[in-house]
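User: Teach me something about this protein's shape.
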Amino acid sequence: MNKAEIHIISMRERLNNLLSWQHQAQVEAALKRRTRKSQDPVITGEQMPYDEFDPCEIKRPRQQHRLDGMRGCSVLMSRCHQQSFGACYLGVVAAVVLGMTMVLMWLAVDPVLWALVAPTHQPQMSLATCSNASAEDLVAGSGLELPAWLSARWLDPGELSVLQPCQPRFPLVLQSTCTGDSCARTLDEWLASNATAVAKLKELAVSSGALLLRDLPGVSDEDFELLMLRLRIPPTSYTGSIGRRELVKQGSKRTITTRYPPSMVLMPHIEFGNKKTRPEFIAFYAKHLPEKYGETPLVDFQSVWERMDIELKLKFAKGIRFTTRMYPERPFYWIWGEYASTWKGAFGTDDADEALRRCRAMSGITMCRFCMDGALEYVMEFPAVYFHEKKHDAAVLSTTFGFWNADLPLFSLARFPGRLGLWERLHAYALLRLKFASTYLDPTPTRATFSDGSGLTTSESKHLSDLIWDAAVIYPAHAADIVLVDNRGTAHGRMNVGGRIEQRQVVSYIGGEYEVPNAISLSLEVTKAE
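Assistant: First, the predicted structure itself:
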C-alpha cells in the first residue's frame, strides 16, 4: 500500500468520525430542546420549535445506521407519532364521515342499491293454490292412461324452495315407482308402443305449463335425448344464440347450460326471446346437483301478462327491439369465451360472408352487419306478446328479461336476501352495473329496448320483477329429474348457485318451432261504472 492510499483512507476515517459527531450532536441538541419544552411551556423566539426538526430525515453515514443514529431516530419517532396522533385521528374520522355521506347519498339516489342493502321483509306466504284442480283429473281429462308404475300429482309445499301468495299448479309431476337400472328401458318401451301417450304427454306439458318426470333411477343424459326424440320433438339449432352452448358430445343434440357467475340470478325468460323464431319446447335433465340452491324457476308468463299495468302492456304490445353483438375470436373470446358465443360459433361457419347470409336469413331481422371491431351485430323488432293457439289464443308475455337493465336482476336478488350475504349482494350490484355500462364489458352483449328506443324505468322494473316472481315456482331438483317446459307460455331461469358452479350440471334440449306475430293490435274498452 503506497502513501497516497494510506492518506485517502486516513481522510475517509476522519470524515466519518466528523459526520458521526455532528449527527450525535444534533440528536442530543434535539433531546435537550424537547426536555426544555416539556419543563417550560413558554417558547422564546430564539428557540427552534420541535416541529421544525425531524430526526428521521437527518442524513446519516451508512456506517452508523445500525448504531447511535438508529437509536435516536427510534426514540424520537414515537414522540413524533404521539404529537401527530390528533391530526391523524381527525383525518381518519373525516374520511369515514365523507365515505358514509357519499354512500348515503348514493343510496338515496339509487333505490336498487337501497333494496339490496336493506331488503324489505317478505311476508309469510300462503299455502293456498291458484287452482283446486287435481292432477289425476287433469290426466284423466286428457285421455292419457298411465301405466301402473307412473302416478300423477302436484308438488307439495314442502318440496318448494319458496312459497308464493298463490302457489301456481305446475309443473305436473309424473312420479315413477320403478326401481333399478331398467327404468330407462321401461319408459322407452312404453312410448315406443303407444303413439297416443306421446301426443298426450306433450299436451299435458302445454296445458299445465311444464311436465316433471321424477324418480327415474338409471336414466342418463343420453336416455334423456332419446326420450325427447321418442316424444317426436325435432331438435332446433342454436343459430344466432347469445350464450355459448357446449355439446355434451360431438353429434349429439343436447347441450350443457351456460355457466353464468354463481351469484347471479338469471332472469326468467322465453328461450330465444330475443328472436322472432323460438323453439316450441325446452327440456332439462339434472345430471349433477349443486351444493346449494341453483334451482331452475318456472314462471307462468300468461299470469304475468294478465296482471301487468295497462301502460306497460301497451309498451310491450307496440314492439320491442333487441340489438345483439357476436364477438370475434380475438381478443374478446379470450376474455368472455366461457359465457359468450362468437359469430363463428353462433352461425356455425368460419366464412364471414356465409355468417352474414345466415344472419340475414333469420326471421324478423331489420339489420345485420359487421362492425369495425370485427363483431357481427344484428337487430330484431317484434311484439312482446304471443297468442297461444293451444290455449284458446290466450295472450302471453313472450320475451326475455336478462338484457333490459341491471335493475331487474338486482331487484330479484333483493327479493331473496337470505340466499346471499351483504357482501355478495354488493358484488353482484357492481358486476351487473359494470355489465350494462358497455357492450364490451358484457359477456353476452345484447341490449333490449322498446321500439322507440326507450327502456324500462326503475319503477317499471320493480313492478315487472314482482309480477314475475309472484308467478314463479321454485323447487330443488332431484338427481335425474327431467322437466319438459312449454316454451310458448312458461319461462325458465336460474337461481343463484351455492358452492362451485362446476358442480351444477344441467343438460338442455330444445325442439320444435314457432314464431311471434309481426304486429298486434290492442283495444281498450271503457264502460260506465255501476
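Now, about its shape. The two ends are 123 Å apart (CA to CA). The longest strand covers residues 281-288. If you'd like, I can walk through any region in more detail.
User: That's plenty for now, thanks!
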